[in-house]
Structures are given as structure tokens and as C-alpha cells.
Design goal:
360 residues; alpha+beta; 9 helices; 59% helix; 14% strand
């Protein structure tokens, strides 16, 4: 491998710097070309669209107003809440109509008990071709009672246009890196270019995945359906005060009966556990009561023993034992009554001394 001059390496460094700034330059150039092409002129500046406004492609003199809408990238989401008395028939119709229109079921779930009249709930997330969504809604709404329906449309034209612009600039950069890789001769240059080329290819794949996702969102609209099985359909027309009050009272009574039924079933299910807890509580109460009675008996016995000991020693018992203290005071009072007055002994005449006779 021959040695290159400094000018060669300087040129290669400038080329790499140019590649780093190429996405910005190509993005501006592509946007300018799109603006010039839409206006029918090759001259003029590029006015950057406002990010907060929806992108509307420029129209020429021969373009109709309806064509502007067809060029925009719009996604549509519909939320539909229904109720029916023929739950099985309507769910089967929804699933069959999805296949007939060319859509698919993204998610589905059915909950509740099969009572034949009410209680079940079906939820669907459907992807319907955007052009056939209105016809699909008209078919399924005829067999059910529609409670509410909401529509949401999002304009992703600007995001889609930015993705296409970034893809175009990245592909140009990829081609330039491939040409530089063919002319690179040093190992260091080859590694640097390959690293950059790997990063560019990863970004291209990421933007292509985002573009495919947006294409799918535009092509297939999202339909969220909530279908409830009921015994009596909810009147959609306006109700007067008495009718609405009666309906709400009936609904409240049904909810109350349902709550009592659910509570009783839960109580029956938990009966074995409740019985076990009750038995354990009774055993614990008996053990605690016996322990307390034994403790009280020991305390009483200890007090009596202590009172007897104090009584033998001539000391008053403790203040807590009132009966023992009262008994001790009575015995002490009687003892003091016998010992306070000693008996008088008679004096004999012989022991008395001679007395003077006053007559002598």
C-alpha cells in the first residue's frame, strides 16, 4: 500500500465533514424542490410550514379542491357503544362483516355469564379499510341499539412528509458513503466509513418502519366497539321526568338485587374460612379467660399469704388488701384492750407495815 500525501488526507477529511452535514443540506434542497414543483416554477424561496398547522400541498390551476384532501394523510378512529338483545347473532355478524370488507380483528374479548338475556359484554378493536368504514358501520348499527358514537381524525401529513424527506437524504448519504468506501485505501478510513454507513442504514430501516406504520394507519381505520347484552333496550329518544325517574328506580333496584346476590354468593364461598376463624376466636377467648382467672387466683392467694405473714409479725398488711387490714386492726384492737389494763393484786395485812394507832 503506497503512502499518500497530506493533501489526500485533508481532502478525505473534508469529504467526511461534508457527509455529516449532507442530511441537513439535502433536506432543505428536497423541500425546496417540492415547493418549486408544486408551484410550477423552478425559482423562488422555500417557506417552512408551521409545525402547529396541518400540511396542505400547493395546488395548481387545474387541481380541484377535492384533490387536496386525497393528498393528505389522515387517520380515523371511531368509538361505538351499542347494546343488543341478540348478542350471539350480532357478534357473529360483526366478525363476518370484518372479513368481507377486507379488514381484520386486532383484539377481541367477551366477558360475563351466558344467561340468555343479559350480562355479557363484547369488546372489539377492528381495523377496517378507510374507504369501507362508513358502509361497515351502517350494516352493524341496524341490528343493535346505538348508545354513543365518536369520531376522531388525525392529520399526519407533515410527519409523513418529514419521514420521506429524511429517507431521501439518508439514501443519498448511503450512496456517497458506498462510493467513498470503494476508493478508501487505509484501514482507518475504511473503519470510519463503515461505522458511519452502519449508522445510516440503521436510520433508514427505522424511518422505513415508521413510514409503513403510518401507511397502515392511513389505509386501515380503527373501530372500537363495545357491545352489551341487555334484556330491555335503553330508549334513545328524550324522556320526560316521570319516565326517567321510573327507569332509574328500576335500574337501581336491579343493581341492589344483583349486589345482594353477589354478596350472598361471596359469603357462601367464604363460609369455610369464616367458620375456621370463628372457632379459632372462641378457642383464643377461652384460653385468655382461663389464663386471667388463674392469674386472679394467684394474686388473691398471694395477698392472703402476705396478710397472714404481716399479721404474725405484728405489721399491718398492704393497703391494697382492705379485708386483711380491717381484720388485722380488729385483732390488734382486742389485743391492746387486754394488755393495756394489767390486773390488780390484793395486798395482805401482814405485808402492810405497822400503822400508828391514833388512840395511843
Amino acid at each position: 500500500m503506497k503512502i499518500r500525501s497530506k493533501a489526500y488526507y485533508k481532502g478525505l477529511a473534508l469529504a467526511l465533514v461534508f457527509l455529516l452535514f449532507m442530511p441537513i443540506l439535502t433536506a432543505c434542497g428536497t423541500a425546496t424542490q417540492a415547493q418549486d414543483k408544486g408551484s410550477g416554477s423552478s425559482e423562488g424561496g422555500y417557506l417552512e410550514p408551521d409545525r402547529n398547522e396541518s400540511f396542505v400541498p400547493p395546488a395548481d390551476g387545474n387541481q380541484k379542491p377535492g384533490d387536496l384532501i386525497s393528498d393528505r394523510k389522515l387517520t380515523r378512529t371511531v368509538d361505538l357503544r351499542m347494546e343488543t338483545q341478540n348478542f350471539v347473532d350480532l357478534t357473529a355478524k360483526i366478525e363476518s362483516e370484518v372479513i368481507m370488507t377486507g379488514g381484520y380483528i386486532q383484539t377481541s374479548a367477551i366477558s360475563g355469564e351466558d344467561k340468555g338475556s343479559s350480562g355479557r359484554l363484547a369488546t372489539y378493536v377492528l381495523r377496517i379499510p378507510a374507504a369501507k368504514l362508513d358502509d361497515f358501520l351502517a350494516k352493524i348499527k341496524t341490528d343493535g341499539n346505538v348508545l354513543s358514537q365518536s369520531n376522531k381524525i388525525d392529520d399526519i401529513t407533515l410527519q409523513y412528509s418529514d419521514t420521506e424527506t429524511r429517507l431521501a437524504s439518508l439514501r443519498i448519504e448511503q450512496e456517497t458513503l458506498m462510493r467513498l468506501l470503494e476508493r478508501a485505501e487505509t484501514i482507518e478510513d475504511i473503519i470510519t466509513i463503515q461505522d458511519r454507513l452502519t449508522n445510516v442504514r440503521w436510520q433508514i430501516e427505522s424511518y422505513e418502519a415508521q413510514k409503513r406504520l403510518m401507511d397502515n394507519q392511513v389505509e386501515y381505520s380503527v373501530l372500537n366497539i363495545s357491545l352489551a347484552e341487555v334484556k330491555d333496550l335503553t330508549p334513545v329518544e328524550a324522556e320526560n321526568y316521570l319516565t326517567e325517574a321510573a327507569r332509574r328506580f328500576n335500574q337501581a333496584w336491579k343493581d341492589f338485587v344483583k349486589g345482594i346476590r353477589t354478596f350472598s354468593l361471596d359469603l357462601i364461598s367464604a363460609a369455610p374460612m369464616l367458620i375456621l376463624l370463628l372457632v379459632l376466636a372462641i378457642i383464643a377467648w377461652i384460653l385468655i379467660a382461663r389464663s386471667r382467672s388463674r392469674y386472679r387466683a394467684r394474686q388473691q392467694e398471694q395477698r392472703l399469704r402476705q396478710a397472714q405473714q404481716f399479721s404474725n409479725q405484728g405489721m399491718p398488711p398492704m393497703e391494697g388488701n382492705k379485708e386483711s387490714r380491717r381484720r388485722w386492726e380488729e385483732e390488734n384492737r382486742q389485743r391492746n384492750a387486754h394488755t393495756s389494763a394489767p390486773p390488780q393484786t390484793p395486798v395482805s395485812t401482814q405485808e402492810q407495815g405497822p400503822t400508828d394507832n391514833p388512840t395511843k
